[in-house]
Amino acid sequence: TVWVRHAVCDSTATLAECLPPSDDTSDALLMLLTGLCARLRRESAIELLAPLATAIRSVARELSSDEIGKVLKDGASIPALGAVLSSTLAASSSSSSGQNGHASNGNNGGAEGDFPAILAALFSALGAVASAAMDLFAPFAVDAIAPVLQVLRARCGDTTAGIRPETLTAEVLAACLEASGSVLAA
After folding, report:
1. Per residue, what are the HEC states of 56-91?
2. What is the pTM of this model?
3. Fewer Cβ within 10 Å of end Cβ, the chain: N or C?
4. Measured torsion, CA atoms of residues 151, 157, 158, 159, in degrees rounded to the nearest 10
């Protein structure tokens, strides 16, 4: 159920921040990161995107670039994060018409009003992964920068960016700019 997955995300974030560094800890965090990214790709409950992104961010912050490089080699983790970010941006722009671009069951539990928090968490996770991966992130930078540019274009008044102005809160913009620095540094 949704509340169990939410509790797992919260526990994972806390666990990642509390475990002492060691090879075993790194191995465990890598398994968790792989699982979290896989879950993010197929999560149908939009209200779980922010907790999943927060857990990904917490785990990524505890890994070195060599360690996180092992997850990047699978080729699916980062594109999943970018794809979910893009689909959430699309869903946030169409939420007023009752559409939900990410939640497949159509029941988002009232998460429409939380799009800014969800987007901020996703951008923060993207930034954390890019920052941890450093130069290993370069192959993913072009795809990862697309949602960042979409937000920045919308903030500059580009109505073709497809983002409603109320979605562009200070929290979203701050997380977006933080992610852009890490992605561009790659």
Report:
1. HHHHHHCCCHHHHHHHHCCCCHHHHHHHHHHHHHHH
2. 0.86
3. N
4. 100
